[in-house]
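re the bet — no i am not wrong, look at it urself. input seq straight from the record:
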Amino acid sequence: MIDSLLIANRGEIARRIIRTARRLGVRAVAVHSEADAGMPFVAEADEAVCVGPANPALSYRNVDAILAAAKSTGVQAVHPGYGFLSENADFARTVASNGLVWVGPGAEAISAMGDKINARNLMAAAGVPVAPGSQDPAGEVDAAIAAATSIGYPVMVKAAAGGGGMGMAVANDEAGLRTEYDKVRAFAERMFGDGSVLIERYFPRVRHVEVQILGLADGRVIALSERECSVQRRNQKLVEEAPSPAVGPELRERLLAAAVKAGEAVNYRNAGTVECLLDPATGEFFFLEMNTRLQVEHPITELIHGIDLVEQQLLIASGEAPSFDVTSTATRGHAIELRINAEDPKRFLPGPGAVATWVEPAGAGVRVDSGYAAGTTVTPFYDSLMAKLILFGADRDEAIARARAAVAGFEIAGPKQNLPFFAELLENEEFLSGDYDTGIVTRMR
């Protein structure tokens, strides 16, 4: 078993990994920027190393500084968390070439899934359903128009190298496609260094459902269960729940089988997520992307399965068997996660600031994975996520009731925060029915 670990991340996910490392007796080393020196994850680590200024390009994405920290502290392994360098195949290779254990999938799998077009083609070849779309990058707008004409409008214009809901736009006709193509391509070049564009059919009413997979050390790939991620703003998730209210036993069986095929197609190891679009009218689903890392929403899977996914990641990276019976993936109860962001609850615009008050709710079925505390500051340099409020109940109704109470009991003063949005959502009839889709936030606004 790995005995020491550097966490190449910050905030709540760094604290989350530290918590499991401490329980397992694994020494945890944090890296941090100058702006994060006073953050809880730095204080809670066994050791902490400053790797640069606030700008993430000079700190959390600074490969040389992170590797220097790993060497100076004598760790055995590197856990990338999510975001930053977590899906950077070159970083994974560099970690391995420096004699360190990479807690994640191999660089080849990261690279294969990092390009949306390549990933689509691989999945189609493996028998995983994919939405109608282009098999090659649309290198110019005329190629995009030809693809859209073949697929049929409306279409989604996507950055092939993008992820996390970024670099996506909908075009309803040729004029719209010409406009959105240029915007997406410019954004992709600026954000990802790759202007490749994918054209794919857009489904006006669709649900976003994903499956948690584990690629085990012995070569097997298993699928645990699905998560519902349809409450989104700007294609980015706000609420997740497990199991999905839209998925029954037969559909679940098909989803999990497809997710296993997806993992096997790239010899997947460690934790990953296969994301799909689900047409609620027909029960058809289509591969969207594979996230080659631990997901933000992993806690709801942990709660309904009664396992620790970070522990499984460390065991797999160590070449060990998982600590639970993989032949029995039955679930219990229902879990919901609310992403508490430093943002305006109406327009969802970032609102950083000093945290004057931070009082977390507690009680039966309440879990809070947070990155902040009173006296800390939400800066504009990083993602707006402050905490994840995770609720568990015997069924969906109980989980929602606990969510209402927890939202009312979570006190945050200083930065803007979106708790009022969640209070509204948890009384929304469409959400309460379970029959909602990715347009629910737009309809609420």
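see?? The first helix runs from residue 11 to 24. told u. also The chain has a mean pLDDT of 96. so pay up
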